[in-house]
Amino acid sequence: MFRRKLTALDYHNPAGFNCKDETEFRNFIVWLEDQKIRHYKIEDRGNLRNIHSSDWPKFFEKYLKDVNCPFKIQDRQEAIDWLLGLAVRLEYGDNGTVLQTVFLPVFTAEKYKDLVPDNTKNADNAAKNAEPLINLDVNNPDFKAGVMALANLLQIQRHDDYLVMLKAIRILVQERLTQDAVAKANQTKEGLPVALDKHILGFDTGDAVLNEAAQILRLLHIEELRELQTKINEAIVAVQAIIADPKTDHRLGKVGR
């Protein structure tokens, strides 16, 4: 139940986190405070870091009170989820500002969407159809966490503009993960016969068999270089497609965190 938020926070084992394991749970709380929340000063984290102390539950209970967590120590899963929400908001919120809610439920928008005038809804729908990314709330912590999780999963370079990252994800999915692209990638490639005697090796090992093996290795190496060049060209085209977007001012962007 915590996997998405753990992934967004770059936790080392988001899929295998077990909050019922006492040692793992205490180490996780220390990591969360040291790396993400940072409510205490470094010198004040000693009690929380002493995970083998019999008094650790008391220190953790005090920590929950200090960060204004509404849940008690016995409500472990609820407390963890709340702390993760706090960490995500601190990590991705505007200028580190803590927002009032953990995440806005999806049903909130559904509840009030009918109150919007019809002409406004029609205009909004037309805009969304023209450009599906134009009306996204790029400052929403949930949106940022989701984009970051996708970027980590697809190994896409991070960017300060989350909308740019989302567009890069869309390009990658369209080019590599559609049904046609996957089917094309899975097609068996039939090689053409090669006459080794027409390819000059450039040196002589003194053994005809070794010379032939060297020629084969050289041809395989050339094929790998061609594939690498093709991938480089595809990456350049993808970057140019993002930078060429008139809505993106790449001069204000930074690569990395």
Number of strands: 0
Query: What's the overall average pLDDT, rounded?
Result: 74
β-sheet strand percentage = under 5%
Distance between the termini: 27 Å
Describe the biggest sheet? Answer: none
How many helices does DSSP assign? 11
Helix content: 55-70%
Global shape: elongated
Radius of gyration: 27 Å
Considering the chains and any ligands shown, give keywords for the structure.
257 residues; 11 helices; elongated; mainly alpha
Give a verbal description of the structure:
- α2 (22-37) packs parallel to α5, α5 crosses α8 and α8 (141-154) packs across α9 (162-177).
- This protein has helices at residues 3-8, 22-37, 46-49, 56-66, 76-92, 106-112, 118-130, 141-154, 162-177, 179-185, 208-243.
- The chain starts with a helix and ends in a 14-residue tail after the last helix.
- The longest helix is centred in the last third of the chain and has 36 residues, at 208-243.
- With 257 residues, the chain is an all-alpha fold.
- The model is unreliable at 94-116 (pLDDT under 50).
In short:
This protein has eleven helices and no strands. The protein is mainly α and 257 residues long.
Secondary structure elements and pairings:
Layout: H1 3-8, H2 22-37, H3 46-49, H4 56-66, H5 76-92, H6 106-112, H7 118-130, H8 141-154, H9 162-177, H10 179-185, H11 208-243
